[in-house]
Amino acid sequence: MRAALAFFALFSALLFPATAGAAPIAVTVSIPPQKYFVEQIGGSDVTVTVMAAKGQDPHSYEPTAAQMESIARAEMYCTIGVPFETQWVPKFRSLNPSMRVVDLLGAIPRIEGKPDLALRDTLPGKGRNRHDEHDHDHDAHGGHHHGLDTDDPHAWLSPDDMAKAVPVIVAALAEKRPDRAAAFAERGAALDKNLADLSARIRAMLAGAKTRTFLTFHQSWAHYARNFGLREASVELEGREPGPKSMAMLMDFAKANNIKVIVADSMTGRSAVEAIANNIGASVIHATPLAEDWPGALLEFSGKLAAALGAPQ
Hints:
This protein is an alpha/beta fold.
């Protein structure tokens, strides 16, 4: 990929005239991790605005008036497939028709919304198995924001997947500032190497893990699991603590799949997580999947996960 980026930079520099004293490219992104990638490639040639910033939920987010004013001035918007984009990106386009919209998921292999393992599969009509005899209560099976029939958009949690988005960002920035194409390509190549190094470090952390399955209550780690040869077992709780029947189902499910680790984020009710962990004898790892310090947060999470999965320390 580095050779391709270098060729693209040379081609762009020859094809387009230089633009002296051009202002930084105003780029808007949906979530904080995207800011890291655009800034790593754009450097001082970009200014990046995050729509659903720290502490905001990308599922229910709505832009402020000030952010809409920022959209009106933006040259580029980078999407990543989070839920609010479906409703709001068309409105952003209407407000600013000249704004380039760049899909960072376009180059990344999709993962359908259905996780590797899910208690939702045991509900009536989803196939018969050893849970069919249960009189299910449905407090642990509410609808999810993404749904089981949609793609999992959380590609930013996989270094290998995000490496595929690097040339997309490089090309989009070079289109806006052709005279800076070489700089974008050089930074893109450096980021590509850093992503490969990060992926290798995490694989080394996870090597020798006694189990490779973890449980989540917000279906968001499928790309990470694919990257590192793990399995994400996902159950949807909608922030609620499961009732007795659902807890019994969870305990059976955890035992059958040798689940000893729960990955939780701010979208999962803490009381529900603690109740389930206590009942199935699992350790809990609290993740920050929307951190702006993307590599730092992913390394910290991976170290905790590796230890919990029984990898040699």
